[in-house]
# Entry
Amino acid sequence: MVTVTPLKIEDYGLIGDGRSCALVGRNGSIDWLCWPRFDSPACFAALLGDGENGHWQLAPDEERGGTPITVTRSYRNHGMVLETVFETHTGVVAILDFMAIGAAEPTLIRIVEGRRGAVPILNWLVMRFDYGLSVPWVTRLPDNMGISAIAGPSRCVLRCPVALHGEDRHTVSRFIVSEGDQVPFVLTYMDSHGALSQPIDALAALHRTEQFWSDWIGRCTYQGEHAAMVRRSLLTLKALIYQPTGGIVAAPTTSLPEELGGGRNWDYRYCWLRDASLTLIAIMAGGYFEEAMAWRDWLQAAVAGSPDQVQIMYGIAGERLLNEWEAGWLPGYEASKPVRVGNAAAGQLQLDVYGEAIAALHVARQTRLCAITDGWRLQVGLLQHLATIWKEPDEGMWEVRGGRRQFTVSKISCWLAFDRAIRDVEKYGLEAPLEEWKALRQDIHDTVCREGFNADKNCFVQYFGGTGLDAGLLLIPVVGFLPADDPRVSGTIAAIERELLDEHGFVRRYLPDRVIEGVTGDEGAFIACSFWLVNAYVAQGRMEEAHALFNRLLALCSDLGLLAEEYDATTGRQVGNFPQAFSHLSLINSASILNAGRITTMGAAPLPVL
# Structure
């Protein structure tokens, strides 16, 4: 019997194929996999429970003398094929894990390679569909070269050259791998009502997948300092793109906690408009204009329709109904409950998304990702609606659940929407009520400076009339709302340094407040916000401090170069959903800014000169 306890979040590696992702632990266990899409129910959900909720262990057999002495892992050829090397007393083996590129059906392949000596291997497969709830009916394949597991509409087929047998609703094999051996395991997802697909040549799929990732990262044009970390972040973002639509999920996981053992657990397998302009800029900073164009097209299609129905997030194909419910049978990662599926924040009013969307489309127009007039009527409709609602309270960019307030960053984003649209009208002669928009822009600016600034503290505050801070205020000089040398901006950055930095100098989003947030508990430092402080330092000309903070942030990356949403300074661990697109986008942008030595304000996010 194999007992599986989820590892530290940073001890997982990511593999993907443009449709979904899997998380592979350094112990050789795959503890998270949603099939056939990022947002599909998980068939391996041990990450949020234990081994009985579904996992796939493939590693040296410790019961037969295969206890690892050392474990090292890396991505082969700097791509997305994960190689985990186990050194034991009897020899060395490597496990190659990847999701096959170009396969007709979603396929996960694991190859055991003997490197030295002879090592006993344990294969322990526990299929559990519907987030660990449904136990499938398992039968042998007609050729006796594997098994088929069916539950409801889902079917997974495992093919391998070693004998398999059942042990208490688990599929098991034990064998010896000697130097030079290559033993492939191929797991394929298909509809339960369909015919069996043809077997896949695992070694040919390995070559094809490695070539794909090698070719893709070989097109990267970024040549600045920290290029290796930038490339790894770009690869991570590419793995989070749903290839059929171009949508990018915020993370491939749900309910990894912001506080270990707490209830701040959310489903991030969706696409946030908050990330829109940041995504475009980061992808283009690497030279990937095709992916940027696909994201821009996804964005425009997602927000199309009635302007008053714009959401803060959508499904990977633009779905709007993201109903939130709880998987009560799962105990949660390190007892962090509840486990949530779906995200109720999709129904919130967040005014900042208008700024993000308009700024992203502005960036696309500036960089010629689209025709000058493409989508302009849609943008005019969005701005006409924004003109009628910008004074309303909202839930803010951090999606609080304690009620609406007049969040300062939300109002700045409204200013941003009109500012970028005005720039496009003036530069390209687009048809619009220019003078009306200019008056609105000035009205919003005056309102923020009057209501969002606390003279006693000499800083902008989280919401009108409040006294708390918000890390989103670090974007003020970046988007061009006020210059970095304005005393109000300097005072705000200084206040954030005093009140929101943890003991390691990383930035918290804000100080937790149950009344504002509507949830209890604490959280770690928000990694993206810490990168925003790097950018603010650059804007102020504090280059030495900017480089020092950036290097401290790089030190938070796992050995595979991956980042979660937050960092818990108390435990020294990554927390939150993993890997987090927002963290990697911010890493790329801050690296580009440091490399350029300055910031321009094209869009809602930092942009080096293109």
User: Anything to note?
Assistant: Residues 408-428 form the longest helix (21 residues). Residues 226-596 form a domain with the Glycosyltransferase fold (CATH 1.50.10.10). The chain has a mean pLDDT of 93. The longest strand covers residues 107-126.
